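Help!! Second protein's tokens look totally different from the first
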Amino acid sequence: MLNDGLSHSSHSLSFKPRYMTRMCVVQVRRRALETKRQTRIQEMAERRRQRASEFELRQQEKEKERMEAARAKERDREERLAALNKQQKAHIEELQKKIQQKVNIECLSCACSKFIDCGWFFVFIVLAKIFNIEYLIMQFLLSG
């Protein structure tokens, strides 16, 4: 029986270390799995941050391109408006010149008719060529 007790006693002693060893192995394995899981979580979080950063950069680049396109469109619009204003101003100046020429022709016609009535037409033509024609017409009209 002593052998039996010893063997039983040794069996129970050998059982505890094996059980403890299994518990340690399980704990070590759990820790390793937890470490792996934490590593994966950190890697996923890093990938998520990286994707978010890349997305933000793309959004900023798109916004920059959109703003540049808007500035170019505004420049084109300003250039078109400036060209249109220049064209309108030139047209107005040309109309004013035509009006002035018509007024000058009417004044000349009026003055010529008065000179013709007075018999001074040829004198008027010579004087108009020698001097400033508008000045002569105005002087003649004011005096007449």
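Here's the second one for comparison:
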Amino acid sequence: MFEGIRKRTLERCVLRMKTGEEVIVDGEIRDRAVWAADVYAAGPAAAKFFGKKGLGWWRNSLLALAKRQYPDGKLPACVDLNGKYRILSRWFDSYGLYWILSAREYLKKTRDPGFEEVFLGVAEKAGRYYSTDGLYRAGMIDLHWNWTILRPRINVENNALFYAVTKKEGFRELFWRKFFNQKSGLLKEPGSKAVFLDGNCLAVMYDLVPKGKMKKFILALRRFETPLGPRSYIGNAKSVVGWHKDLICPFTAYLYVRALMKEGDEVGAKRVFEVTMRAGEWETMPEFWKTDGRIWPGTSLCHSWGTFGGSGGIF
């Protein structure tokens, strides 16, 4: 479904590194850099639509980031086409965790022995950085997908990803006590005036929601839905600029679809997927758009994170 727009987006977001390897960048025009979370979504889509060639793009993208792992074990959020860090490479602890999950998915699909050797070395170093005795606290303030939305350092998304990577014993209970909000029926950071879609979906995907509460939890997620796709958050998030409020991001829609598929709600997943893909008459998938359909002039109009990867039963 919607193969044309997804394939065109991917093809335009595949560029060559200075060293010659073809990699998946975030956007055709902006930023033209390899970002770990974009690869998490776009890598499986590349494999789905382009087979062996797409798997090569996915592999090269993961390796481009792995080569620039910091001495303390942190994985960079992004690297440019010269293989160098960018201003925000050290930010976004979540992106390094997405790298690990994406690398695991790639290995599950390919059983690539050469990449497995690289992965084991990267994971061993990463274990020193992504570790905690309690809840995970980001090393630097993280930003939301809307890029001017600030997150608390101890947030739902990072902690859901931390558990997905580590499966640390006793963490699920700690996570639920800290973040479950009785009033909303969802997970939110204490003191925050907003509830974010991404962390709630990741909690479903990676088994952090107690089974007895799952049905009501999935129903509560429907409050994010709009006629143009699920909004990135509900409530009043702390933002540097007002324009980034009320945005729909196809990456968080992708997580929502995966969460619904995880719980066997194929009808709901198809509904969210189709509504998001039909939000505008675009040639390629944009980075995000407002709930009224407007797109800000600085928005990337061809963004790989909107290609709805082939994992988790995606259509």
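Reply: Different proteins will give different token patterns, so don't panic. The chain has a mean pLDDT of 94.
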